[in-house]
Amino acid sequence: MKKLILSAALPLLLAIAAQAQPFWVENFTTSSTTGSTTYTGPNGTWTITSVGSEGSRANTWWFGCAESGNVAGACGTDCSGGTLGATLHVSTNSTDLGAAYDAGLGFTGAYVTSKRAESPVINCTGRTGITMTFYYIENGDASIDDAKVDYYDGSSWTTLVNTPKTPVCSSGQGQWARYSIALPASANGNPNVKIGFHWVNNDDAAGTDPSFAVDSISLRTSGSASTIAAAFTASDTVVCQDSCLRFTSTTTGTVDSMRWSATGATIATPTASPANICFATAGTATVKLKVYGGGSVDSTTKTIRVKNSPHPTVTNSGMTLSVTGTYASYQWYRSGTLITGATNSSYTYSFPGAYTVMVDSGGCKGMSVAYNYRVGLNELYNAYNTEFNITRPSSGTIAIAPNTTLTEDLFITITTYTGKTVYSAKYEQSASQITINTQNWSTGIYFIKISGSNQAKVLKYYYQD
After folding, report:
1. Coil vs helix vs strand at 378
2. Which helix (H) or strand (E) segment is 109 a member of?
């Protein structure tokens, strides 16, 4: 069993300048740290195919962060150093250890491997003079534990190149390298191109990690290579807290990979352009774009001012919600729906729901935490100077009870919103509560009439089982 190889990740490949933009990019955009033997990305699904004799414990192609790509010359770690990106790599049959493989026992044949990871179909229509570039690490054992790059022209597979072994760092980790090669002329204008990475292992118990890992694969047309100069534009340089800006790379030159970073911010697609960056912390944020290409690295930054957004506090008194503090404007919502005309600092409700208010302070808006309101008897009226409470002993029932001892017998009648009577009975003053069967009730508003010898009250209740 080979040692665990950890690595650092290489960002997604995507260039913006027209003369340098790849027309096909694969960066294995998965955040899985445990690894998967299947992968479907922006280009489609990769396929793993046995292309020769294989044993029962043959090495396996994995997609994940146990091995992560990096710029040329860097030694490997896994994604935990910044979760920069996953790779396609060869590891053991049952566990993803990164680019660390099992060279076998030398006598069983169980570890014999001949397996190819095949890309989705690549449409090269209208493209000529195509160059493929990728970053990789590779070791093994000469040509018997070895990786090759294969090419499919729409009808058959051929070997494109037997990639050279890459150096091993003093730490034992693989040292990443950049490799470029021209695709055959049959790729020009061909809508059915594929590329593949083919790994073999002869199970002789000899071999040195790393096995093979690849990342940041790009296809571009000829004449596009040039020195990179990082640059980007922002949709604005001032933003409200909890809001987002759009950033677009305008980098010139041959870009193989890029990565966005920003202080106090969240980036959903840190290796793509354009990128939406959302700022959760007020103050000053620095947005950085780092690009890799042609063996060189360049970066640039912009400063963004993040204005404080209000987070209003709402208090409740009776049936009236009020905002603490003074703001430029107010808008109330019920369960996410705007309440027309509810634009004051307070709002008196009469229906159940989750109430929130959006306020404006200095041009930045913020939403309060939701106040969930469900109508109950005790929230609406007092009858005979006695507060009545409602509880739900079980599904399909409600219970009504006074908080203090009654001084006389009462009568209770319950009707629907349309006037249909669903319950009518005496409430004896000695009873601690009455329980009502509601199994046939529909969700909605009901009117509860409580009457005695001298007065009556009509209470409104919203029922939802």
Report:
1. helix
2. none
What does each C-alpha distance from 18 to 68, 204, 251 come to in angstroms? 28, 49, 10
Residues 348 and 390 in one domain: no
Residues of the domain holding 71: 18-221
Cβ neighbours of residue 348 under 8 Å, at least 6 residues apart? 319, 320, 321
Same domain, 342 and 417: no
Q: What is the pLDDT of residues 175-225, one digit of tens each?
A: 999 999 999 999 999 999 999 999 999 999 999 999 999 998 989 886 545
Q: Kindly report the CA angle at 35 between 67 and 66, in degrees rounded to 5?
A: 20
> Averaging pLDDT over each range in 73-87, 90-104, 355-369, which range is the top one?
90-104
C-beta separation of 19 from 224 below 8 A: yes
430 band by pLDDT with thresholds 50, 70 and 90: confident
Query: How far is Cα 465 from Cα 444, in angstroms, rounded to an integer?
Result: 10
CA distance 460 to 164: 81
Answer for the pair 138, 214: CB distance below 8 angstroms, yes or no. no
Rounded to 5 degrees, what are φ and ψ at 187?
-80, -20
State the CATH number of the domain containing residue 418.
2.60.40.3080
Tens digits of per-residue pLDDT, 239-281? 998 899 999 999 888 787 788 889 889 998 787 888 999 998 9
Phi and psi for 279 in degrees, rounded to 5? -110, 115
In a domain, 82, yes or no: yes
Round to whole Å and give the CA distance between 377 and 408: 20
DSSP assigned state of 224? -
What pTM was computed for the model? 0.56
Q: What are phi and psi of 164, to 5 degrees?
A: -65, 150
Cα(159)–Cα(178) distance, rounded to whole angstroms?
Answer: 19
Alpha-carbon span 11 to 34, nearest angstrom: 19
Q: Which of 201, 221, 241 is the last residue of a domain?
A: 221
pLDDT band at 19 (very low <50, low <70, confident <90, very high): very low
Residue 378 has pLDDT above 70, yes or no: no
7 is a domain residue: no
